[in-house]
Amino acid sequence: FRSLLKTYKGLEGLSSLVDVGGGNGAALSMILSTYPVIKGINFDLPVVVADGPLSHPRLEHVGGDMFVRIPKGGAMFLKWICHCFQDEECIKILKNCYAALPEDYGKVIICEYLLPNLDEITPDIARNSVVQFDMCMMVVSRGKERTAKEFEALALAAGFQGFQIAGSA
């Protein structure tokens, strides 16, 4: 995540960021340390944010349910969230993110593994940890890793006008 944070420039100019499913706030704390003007909301289940969250002067911990409502912010950040859920659940989360964004401008930043398209998979790629991680997610959860086209379909189904891949680490 640190290497991605060094190369990704999409956080520049933000004044607020909501980390949806942010756990103890570790990823958001790293973001806030890198971008001193951003105020952050670490949003996760009440039991998660009540149990030893990290402290940072510009970080607020908020408990709630991402399937019901997400706190308002200039941008939403989801790190390793979508791969835990089926498409319908991801669309619900993304619709709630959309509703929490400002009407004039906002974005959702999704940090996930990106699967290659089926026609791009070679034996070397099949041994790649991303493909193996996808199989693991299907076994241990109801989720999966996704291709760029699958992420785009989720974004459009949730009401977003566009989708772009901004970088990879």
TrEMBL record:
Keywords: Methyltransferase, S-adenosyl-L-methionine, Transferase
Superkingdom in the source lineage: Eukaryota
InterPro entries, sorted: COMT-like, COMT_C, SAM-dependent_MTases_sf
Example of a GO biological process term: methylation
Protein's UniProt keywords contain Methyltransferase: yes
A molecular-function term among this protein's GO annotations: O-methyltransferase activity
Domain O-methyltransferase C-terminal: 2-161
PROSITE patterns to which the protein is assigned, alphabetical: SAM_OMT_II
Protein name in the entry: O-methyltransferase C-terminal domain-containing protein
